[in-house]
């Protein structure tokens, strides 16, 4: 398949710049992948599409305030550092702008020296390994100095950093939010559980590779980024039991979907454990675990467009997106949602 097969035209003004005041009041496009039927609802109406015995699988990763503004020691030149993943101890893989000011040996000061960093190596994609020095607890310093790493298409300042966090976020480690989960409130989750729907947790730390554009025309040549995931024993048991008893496994977001599909056997049994996944799901993929998917609207020609096209069929997805544009849905991270059943 070609990259252009996943292109659609999106007016700039439909890219949501701010979260809605009420999380669950976003719009919801429901797509039945068997019939192709589409409905336009409000997100909290999702309860009408859930059944007792189903299992919602959420990604409980937590976004860290990973964007640091610093200055080069000696010259005072401004440098922006984005933390991508912790390698070992105080060494992080980072994205640095401008890169030419961050050669090995360069030292960077943050918060007037509250945090210091030294570039120790240049790795794949021009990313820098930085060793940090500080007194106290790194996470507390990061909370004080760091900003939320909003995607490049969001230009507005985020007033409340918790709005780029799901209400069930628990494990620090993401450079981007699993945005399908942003629509849930504690009240809505309680209502869902009271209906007899199970809620299972998995963890996948979202990397910035999520936003990396596909640069090859033949999508099968695309090199997928890797991300760290964890599936706990009791959660794997709950999800497997749901399948065995005839309930549906409903992934909340493409990150939950990728975790479930990565950790499942060919026979559709979820295995507990942790590791790195670089699974690339595109049309032709045979799903082993998920029966339905809650997701936001994705960038044209992105790997996430390819994933939802694999699940619902490319033609149906393109038609649904065309309708969403016509109906003035809000797109991307702070945008509206889609339920594919």
CATH architecture of the largest domain: 3-Layer(aba) Sandwich
- Quaternary status of these chains? single chain
What's the CATH class label of the largest domain? Alpha Beta
Helicity range: 10-25%
Question: What attributes does this structure have?
Answer:
Thrombin, subunit H; 341 residues; QueA-like; 18% helix; globular; 17 strands; nine-stranded mixed beta sheet; single chain; alpha/beta
Give a nutshell description of this structure.
The protein has helices spanning 138-145, 186-194, 233-244, 254-262, 303-312, 314-326; strands spanning 27-31, 38-42, 55-59, 61-63, 67-72, 78-88, 91-97, 107-110, 115-122, 128-134, 171-174, 198-204, 227-231, 249-252, 273-277, 292-296, 337-340.
Q: Can you walk through the features of this model?
A:
By secondary structure, the protein is α/β, with parallel strands linked by helices. It folds into 2 domains: 242 residues, QueA-like; 79 residues, QueA-like (Thrombin, subunit H), CATH 2.40.10.240. The protein is 18% helix and 28% strand. It has 6 helices and 17 strands. It has a 9-stranded mixed beta sheet with strand order 2-1-17-16-14-3-12-13-15. Strand 9 and strand 10 form a beta hairpin.
Layout of secondary structure:
Elements: E1 27-31, E2 38-42, E3 55-59, E4 61-63, E5 67-72, E6 78-88, E7 91-97, E8 107-110, E9 115-122, E10 128-134, H1 138-145, E11 171-174, H2 186-194, E12 198-204, E13 227-231, H3 233-244, E14 249-252, H4 254-262, E15 273-277, E16 292-296, H5 303-312, H6 314-326, E17 337-340
Parallel strand pairs: 1-17, 3-12, 3-14, 4-11, 14-16
Antiparallel strand pairs: 1-2, 5-6, 5-8, 6-7, 7-10, 8-9, 9-10, 12-13, 13-15, 16-17
